[in-house]
Amino acid sequence: MRETYEMGLGARGDEGYEALVAAHEGLDEAQSHALNARIVLLLANRIGDVDELKTILKTARSYA
Description:
The radius of gyration is 13 Å and the shape is globular. It has helices spanning about 15-25, 30-45, 50-60. It has 3 helices and no strands. By secondary structure, it is mainly alpha-helical. Helix content is about 70%, strand content about 0%.
C-alpha cells in the first residue's frame, strides 16, 4: 500500500517546483543526476528520521 502525503508546501508548491527546475538548468544528464542525489541526501538529513525516510523511499519507488 502506498503512503499518501499532504501538500506540505501548500500554496508555495509551484514556487518550490520552479526552484528545483531552475537548479537543474544548464546541467548535463550526469550533473543533473548528481544534483538529485545531493538533494535527496540533504533532505534526508533535514528530515532526520530513518523510518520516515524509508517510508518515503518506498513510496517513491512504488511509482516506478
